[in-house]
């Protein structure tokens, strides 16, 4: 693999660190105050060097850069928390009279930063009187406070008096549903921004992988809907499996239903590649059960039938496909069928089918009993492998509670995940190299980096290889013919790229940096010649020096001071530029964070929303998160409905 540029190398190493679950800001990489150089194991540096195709000193330099960046972010985050805490402490005091349903009332004093949105005040009042934040409305000067607007904007100031009036049961239900829908809309907007992005090396990018972390090749026309659906599903699942409040369950249900709408936009061929749609139906029904949503019963019956059809289609009627794929290890996935049969039993009971309800309940009981894990086995496996409690539970279930097999499975999975992370890193580096090489003439794709490397290894100039693939739309045979028979056309294209590059970087009008000028003077060249030449060579000193030395050896003189470069000189300058570095210069010329550009501000807002709404929930191990249930919820539901079903 060719050496990636600096940005690509950082991205590759960042993915490798994530795959290895390495946190550079913690020991043994960072010691004491973090200012001392980091400590990196030789085998780690050696493996990263092999994967990235870069020198060891470059790998260490990038690791140090990432480490310092992480320490700086951590410091800023801590400072932000302290600042936020201090702002609350010096916030304004408000007086809230909370009216109870029976007519009594109590007065509470709340200290809060009035620049914050009003939902913070709702939460503080709810916490103070121990009720749901959606069970009342806050009224100030005859107007209900809008949760989405700041308190200051709505006229509140220090000493303001408000009333908290109780909502009816129906109003509370509507308020909870509206809040859940608003949360789902925020997540959807952030997920949509992420799904629409390409891997340009400048920010977050969503890559679709299988359960082992291997990238899945999805046509661009299908990728957006599937990426959006999977992101919404993952967010909804996290709220379902880790949330406990009714509010979190309602948010989960809203996101899962949004996900269902997006799955319906995907083609049948794409849905055959993933089993997520069947699991989605199961999650929606489980969420409705926890919310006691009896109104959703007719829909639940249909969804569970669809879920069973899709799971059987994926795993086989008796899990034979799953057994073949996982070499006989099917225990963990039995949790899906246990939940399915438990839900089907409950639906059968409410639809007047007592015989089916008992039969399905007995099946669910057997399946759940088979999933119970011995605490001694878990302790032994955790001691052997150093894995988490959740990973130990999943592996023991998958391996029929055999500790030795479970340990081997964990090692194999870790190795497979590491290999797939390296594959993703290599593919990301290739995509970014393609972006650096530019778009094809028909604007249908980026230049294929592998084909570019093939042409370069044949001895053709790099710049002409780039131009040939762009003009021939990645047709390798046509590009080779152009290099052999139409070189003059390609050279004209190279000169055009050179001119555009100079315009994009602003090098034709920018002043030459003094340090570069001094370096050129130190080599024996005139300062004015260096200044003029740097403008023609896009502020790159080495190509300029090479050009000046070539002119001197040929007896010529630099023409930078009297006129622009002629076509031959422009071609020579173009051929000296690095075809993969030209895009980097354009990136550097874009507005920086905090600039006045509307597009830049919009991108910053999207980045912040993605970091807040999406990133914390989509990077974890799916199997561990989904299949590591302690069975507490399932057993509670089973016990409740066993009593109901068998008492009739």
Identify the notable features of this structure and list them briefly.
648 residues; mainly alpha; 5-stranded mixed sheet; 5 strands; globular
Verbal overview:
The protein is mostly helical and 648 residues long. The protein has helices at 6-19, 42-52, 56-89, 119-129, 169-195, 220-242, 246-263, 268-271, 276-290, 297-315, 320-325, 334-350, 354-371, 375-385, 389-398, 403-437, 449-457, 462-471, 476-485, 487-505, 514-522, 527-536, 541-553, 567-576, 582-588, 598-613, 615-618, 622-627, 632-647, and strands spanning 92-99, 105-112, 136-140, 143-144, 161-166. The chain has a five-stranded mixed beta sheet. Helix 6 packs antiparallel against helix 7 (246-263), helix 9 (276-290) crosses helix 12 (334-350) and helix 14 crosses helix 16. The radius of gyration is 31 Å and the shape is globular.
Offer a quick outline of the entry:
With 648 residues, this protein is mainly α.
Please report the total strand number as a whole number: 5
Instruction: Report on the biggest sheet.
Output: 5 strands, mixed
What sort of overall outline do the alpha carbons produce when their principal axes are compared?
A: globular
Structure annotation, total helices: 29
Oligomer: single chain
The SS-based structural class is mainly alpha
Radius of gyration: 31 Å
Arrangement of strands in the largest sheet: 2-1-5-3-4
Low-confidence stretches: 81-90, 319-330, 503-509, 559-565, 583-596
Write the layout of secondary structure elements.
Elements: H1 6-19, H2 42-52, H3 56-89, E1 92-99, E2 105-112, H4 119-129, E3 136-140, E4 143-144, E5 161-166, H5 169-195, H6 220-242, H7 246-263, H8 268-271, H9 276-290, H10 297-315, H11 320-325, H12 334-350, H13 354-371, H14 375-385, H15 389-398, H16 403-437, H17 449-457, H18 462-471, H19 476-485, H20 487-505, H21 514-522, H22 527-536, H23 541-553, H24 567-576, H25 582-588, H26 598-613, H27 615-618, H28 622-627, H29 632-647
Parallel strand pairs: 1-5
Antiparallel strand pairs: 1-2, 3-4, 3-5
Helix pairs in contact: 1-3, 1-16, 5-6, 5-7, 5-26, 6-7, 6-9, 7-9, 9-10, 9-12, 10-12, 12-13, 12-29, 13-29, 14-15, 14-16, 15-16, 17-18, 18-19, 18-20, 20-24, 21-22
